[in-house]
Amino acid sequence: MKRKTFYTKELGKKVAEGAKIVDPHRYHIIRSDGHKWAVVADGKTRALRVFPDQKQAKFYAEQTATKSNGKVIVHKSTGEVEEVVSFED
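RE: above sequence
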């Protein structure tokens, strides 16, 4: 008798995403609604702050990451990673 499998690629992707280690000292700069840029802590869904341009968002994220010895991950408007800046000791 053949067993049914419930595993799908979509389920595997969700499991892999959920298994990632969340680092609260890692800050992502991503494109927000319209032409705004948001600073989002790793693992969170709400933005810490939203800025009119990427330069201001990067400045804020770097100041925040410096205090916590964290990382800033800058994303392009397409979502790809553009730059990673580390402030870890």
